[in-house]
Write a structure and sequence with these properties.
Largest sheet: 4 strands, mixed
Radius of gyration: 30 Å
Shape: globular
Strand content: under 5%
Number of helices: 16
Order of helices and strands: HHEEHHHHEHHHHHHEHHHH
Length: 363
Amino acid sequence: MIFSIQSLLRIWCPVKMGMQRQLQCFFLVGSVFVIFFIIICWDEMRDGTFYLHTASSQDLTHLKQRQAHRRRFIRELCSAKSSLNFTEKLITFDQIPNKALDHLIVDDHHGVIYCFVPKVACTNWKRVMIVLSQNLKAPNGAPYLDPLDIPLTVIHNSTIHKTFNKLWRRFGRFSRPLMHHKLKNYTKFLFVRDPFVRLISAFRDKFAKPDEYFYRKYGSTMLQRYANISTPPDSAQEAFAAGIRLSFTHFIQYLLDPQTEKEKPFNEHWQQMYRLCHPCQIDYDFVGKLETLDEDTEHLLKILGLEKYIHFPPGYKDRTSVDWERDWFGNISIADRRKLYNLYETDFRLFEYEKPETLLDES
């Protein structure tokens, strides 16, 4: 190729033209070649860009279809004609107690409502909501701009977040019209997770390692009732030091015991997701799943127009997996597994998680 170009230059720009005319000729011919190569490269780049744009459009179409399916599935099961029956199904939004609306976090700046479900990436989504609301200031006095900069100690502080329950505390009986207005005009989203895997994650986080609050409020009672320890140690540290640990079996017995909820409602970490977020009364615009967290998060941020401003924090490497279910439920009787499924069946069905047949039918 180089030899051919040199030959062409000798033909088009002979030496007899004189040095100055020859240099001008070289410049002109060189310019023609440069333009020629730019045109070729531009066509290739344009074809590549078109391919990427087409692929991106196909991905977006798939994500939109996924969301449409998830939302439609919930609406169908929430209808009066569906086969799924549960206590809260046919009540109206106004019949939901105000205290039960404490998981709906509101950002008025961007018109967003997030229903947080513990053990479903809620720590990182709460970080994002703090950045959006600008309610929390950094040490320098400016609002936090990066979710990862927010101290972990304040993320779950209930005073930081504006919730529907706080609207009621502030406006009383005038709060319900405000809630309806926001529900109608704001973008509403939640993230859910396989119910059994969520329970395993809750147990690992709150009882498999020393947690003084959860030990004193729940753990010591479970040890008394289900581990036959009449006088449990006063603290989690003392219990762990003495080799006394709550088992996953004890935790499941606690959940299945009818006495448990007669005394007080389930803690939010193991309360059913539909009881936290009321999907039959609130028509969510976006239903994300932890199992598709990366794709769903990227899609949601695009819907909100925030993909250029918010970097969603990375997830945990030690995240509880559905593959662990068989090991964790190994010491749980088939009868108790089935009772547990019945307890969380509404979550399984509303959010389209497969019934764990191998766990329920294993002999």
